[in-house]
Structures are given as C-alpha cells and as structure tokens.
C-alpha cells in the first residue's frame, strides 16, 4: 500500500517537473513562473495566466491538465485509502485485543513496561502464561501491540485500567512502575478490586517495602537488595547459582526445572508419606520443600505425610513435572 502511494506521488512529481520544463522551453518563461503556471493549471484554481500562451502553449496546457488532474485525484484517493485502512486496522485491532483480554482468566497483569516490566513479561511468556500489560506510555503501547502482547493503554493506579485488564479474573499482578508511590496506589486499587489476587510489587527506596506490604502486596522485591545478594552469591558459590538458573528454567534446554504445585484436597497423594508416594521412582521428580501455611519444610523426611493445601516445591524435567501435576489434580478415585 505504501509503495503504491509512493509510486503514484512520484508520477505526480514528474508531471510537475515536466510541466515546469515544458513552459520553460515553449514560452521561454523563467523557472518560477513556469512552476507557478504548472501549479495553478494542475490544481485548477482558476487564476489568470501568468504569461501569455502561444497556441503550442495552450495545447501543452490542455495535455498537462488532463494528465495531471487524473494523477492528483489518484493521489488523493490513495491518501484517503491509506488513512482509512490504517484507522480501520487500528479499530479492529483494538476490538480484537479487547475481546482477547475479556476471554482470558487466571492471567497475570504486569503494571509498567520499563526494563523490569519487560523482563517480567518475557519470563512469563516464556513460561506460557497469559499476560496483560498496563502501560501509559504511547510508544511502549505501540511496541507491545506490534509484539502481539495484550495491552491496556492507561494509568495502572486507576480502577478503569485495571478492570480493562480483567483484574477480577486475574491470578496475579506485578506492580513495577517507576516510583514507589505509584506502586502503592496500584497495590491498593488492585487489592480492593480482587481480594484473592496474588500481588508482587517492586520497591525502590529504603522503607518502601513495609508501606507496600501494608497496602496489600503478598510479596515485595527490592531490585537493589536482591541484585546485591545475587552478586555476592555468584562470587561465593557460583555453582549453586548456576544450578538455580537451570532449575528456574532460564536454561531450559538443559532439562531440569523447579516448579511449585498446590496439592488439592482430593489428590491421591494426600495422607501418604513421601516414602509411600515413591515420587522419584514413579514420576522422576523430587520434593525439594513443602510449605504448609506459613511453615516451610525443606528437604522433608521420608515419613513426611502430605496434606491437602500443601505447596510442593518439586524438581524434574518439564515432561515429568507435567505428568506429576496431572496425577495430583486427578480425582480422589484415580489410581496412583
């Protein structure tokens, strides 16, 4: 479409140039008068002739008028079509994105698409999670649309923007705006709209973590503190850090992943001990830790008995983890 418009505009420019040169050669007019005569002829404004025309000049004017007028109309039509198609494409694209957001549930909402927000979105999409971004910067919104990422253009601290992102149906929210005050407002608004939402927020300034937790966040992450801790850990125990990177899926091609799974009340593992479940032999997964309420049991003993609602931290390949999750979510009558 753009190439067609450019080609038509190029032909029109050639007509203007040809008209200017033609009047210059036929009527011996100066260059500006020749150009001006070409302009008023092609645009049919009806001004008087800039200079007297000979019979050959009149014939040239008629030819120029018929040739140029058609091209001008064609250019106007192409411009109108380009504008209309672009607007329609934007309207239909917005409708499609709105319907996409309305149709998903259990998704994650990322508020803010700065460097941290971009990293969060990339990691969630790599894990095949549904993500909706709330962003107010027009340039970033266009980048997200071009990447086919569902996005709501608006202020993440407002109810309207969060409702448009489907917060009532969302599973989690990440607030990673540029300043702590906006993150506090976002957490407060999100918590009021969905009391069950799992909220993770970014804290920049010292002391902001407590304020954001009081606002309703489940977890607060300080990039500077965590970044410093990681640097120290890489220095002191690089192999441990490499293993965690692999198990968290950043190098998924190497095989192992760490995953968490909430054990349903109806899961066939409920009431069985770790030894009785034989998870490593049957499903090639290992239980690294179990969280029960606020208590975490790292490296549980073989006589540790599972209960409904336990959060298991398990290690295994992607296929093994998927198979184990299917079993855990099976009905109580399913065979283990």
Task: Please describe what this structure looks like.
The protein is α/β, with parallel strands linked by helices and 336 residues long. 54% of the residues lie in helices and 15% in strands. It contains 13 helices and ten strands. It has helices at residues 2-27, 31-43, 55-103, 115-126, 138-146, 159-164, 180-193, 208-215, 223-236, 238-247, 274-277, 279-283, 318-328; strands at 108-111, 131-135, 151-153, 172-175, 198-202, 219-221, 256-262, 286-292, 295-298, 311-317. The protein is elongated, with a radius of gyration of 33 Å.
What's the helix count?
A: 13
**How many independent structural domains?**
3
Q: Given the helix and strand composition, which structural class is it?
A: alpha/beta
Average pLDDT metric? 83
Strand content: 5-15%
Q: What summary fits the major beta sheet?
A: 6 strands, parallel
Strand order of the largest sheet: 3-2-1-4-5-6
CATH superfamily of the largest domain, by name, is: NAD(P)-binding Rossmann-like Domain
CATH class wording of the largest domain:
Alpha Beta
What would you call the shape?
elongated
Portion in helices: 40-55%
> What is the CATH topology classification name of the largest domain?
Rossmann fold
Task: Give the low-pLDDT segments.
Answer: 331-336
* CATH architecture identity of the largest domain: 3-Layer(aba) Sandwich
Listing every helix as H and every strand as E from the N terminus to the C terminus, the arrangement reads HHHEHEHEHEHEHEHHEHHEEEH
Distance between the termini: 60 Å
Give me the Rg, rounded: 33 Å
The counted number of beta strands is: 10
